[in-house]
Amino acid sequence: MGKLLWTLPLAVAACALGAGSAAAQGATPAVELKVGDQAPDFTLPATDGKTYSLSGNLKGRWVALAWFPKAFTAG
Amino acid sequence: MIRQFDTAYFMISVDTLEDNKGFAEKEHADFPLLANPDKKVALAYGVISPEAPPDRQFARRWTFYIDPTGKIAAIDKAVKPGSSGEDLVAHLTELKVPKKK
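Predict the joint structure of the above. Result:
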């Protein structure tokens, strides 16, 4: 039990080091957007045949972007 | 119900435009669906994890509300497929999004 107690912090430290080196190798960390952040711009094709751009034809409007996992699953 | 608000509403996924066209037809969607198969926008919005294998990278069911200045006004991370329409109206009302004249 005593051994387990002091190996645990070592394992945590090793994981942290691993994550650090992954970042150093250029792995992109997951983005975490918050309220008040500038929304990332996009220009994407839509099913109505038009192309929508946040900085273009959607500029100055309220926009709701509802992400969903996969076509043919419940929206 | 959503249409009473002066807002551009989209559903968006990392599927191809063709897949989403089929989906929109099947669901009789009266709004456009955006397609982002290269996942760049999905990564920028943090709805897919870059660590996941590419064939497992499906967007999280999150809705972003963006105000007219381009800032994020709200993020709904608890979207329920069954009541997404009602939830949307509740959020738009809370955010005081103007109604169409």
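Chain B has a mean pLDDT of 93.
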